[in-house]
Amino acid sequence: MQTGSLTYIKVGIKCCEVFFETLNSPGLCVQSQSVLSLYGSGFTTGISVDLGHDTADIVPVYEGGLISYAHMQTHYASVDISKFIKDSFDERNIGLDIHAEEVLDGIKKNLYLTQNVAMSRKNYRRTYVLPSGEEIDISQEAFMAAEMMIQPVLVKGYETEVMPLQEAVVTCAMKCDAELRPELYDAVVPCGGVSMIPGLNERLATEIENITNKPVTVLSSPEAYAVSWLGGATFAGMPASKKMWVSKKQYEDYGEKIVRNKFM
Fold first, then answer.
1. Rounded CA gap, 262 and 155, in Å?
2. Which of 107, 153, 114, 147 is CA-nearest to residue 130?
3. 26-85, pLDDT tens digit by residue?
4. How many other β-carbons are positioned within 10 Å of the β-carbon of residue 164?
5. Among 238, 227, 235, 232, CA closest to 201
6. For helices 78-91 and 100-108, angle between their N-to-C axes, nearest 10 degrees
7. What tens digit of pLDDT does each residue of 158-182 get?
């Protein structure tokens, strides 16, 4: 099972209760989503860039273990992208009525990032057909909503709570010991639905290298949205993982204590 980096102990306790007492499972193992994203990419050390629905978490992982004190958040996830697009439509007097969720999800599939924002706009025109059949121009939303991840001040024109993604990654690495940083930068792993935005990986690598003046490897995956699940399958198949599982008998004998001892 996978879960977020900061709440996996609490969730693990509740999961053990449900899986053992309700579903009668023989065993359970809870691992951080950040750790599993590294396993799913073939690494045990690196930086997980988890761009999900309601949070964007950047967490370093060393030899399969979280470095939790270096955890960072950008405060710009999928739900914030939807709000950004909706606010932009409101300014243009475009109503989305009862189809709002469907339309927003469709528009988010058109988002992209460029290597250089100084490009000809006519080459990046985007349109979207509303359920009513009306075709609207979404060029501004398709570009700005994604660029907000990298340059929030440029997009909004004022300071916001959004932390640029590249700064979050670099700050996360800087919180770790200096000798670990080269190895962390060798495996920067974007995961989650937002990480599927075209151009994200290339732009993120460029921005990080501009800050650090050092090479960085941002790993790409055609299934970035599911890389943590792939990591879970990889982890479960490792012989060494068996000692990390909690069996039903252990749970019955020790209760919450064994969960904390195994997963904390």
1. 45
2. 107
3. 888 878 888 899 998 889 999 999 998 888 999 999 998 889 899 999 999 999 999 999
4. 20
5. 227
6. 110
7. 999 999 999 999 999 999 999 999 9
Q: Which residue shows structure tokens 């004998």?
A: 253
Answer yes or no: is 244 within a domain.
Answer: no
Which one-letter amino acid corresponds to residue 51?
A: L
Confidence of residue 9 (pLDDT cuts 50, 70, 90): low
Q: Is residue 50 part of a domain?
A: no
HEC-encoded secondary structure of the chain: CEECCCCHHHHHHHHHHHHHHCCCCCEECCEEHHHHHHHHCCCCCEEEEEECCCCEEEEEEECCEECHHHCEECCCCHHHHHHHHHHHHHHCCCCCHHHHHHHHHHHHCCCCCCCCCCCCHHHHCCEEECCCCCEEECHHHHHHHHHCCCCHHHHHCCCCCCCCHHHHHHHHHHCCCHHHHHHHHCCEEEECHHHHCCCHHHHHHHHHHHHHCCCCCECCCCCHHHHHHHHHHHHHCCHHHHHHCEEHHHHHHHCHHHHHHHHC
pTM of the model: 0.86
If you search the block for the tokens 């060029």, which residue do you land on? 139
User: Domain residues for 129?
Assistant: 78-147
For residues 36 and 43, the answer to whether their CB atoms sit within 8 Å is no
CATH number at residue 94: 3.90.640
- The rounded mean pLDDT for the chain is 87
* Number of domains within the chain: 1
Output the six-digit token pair for 155: 């997009």
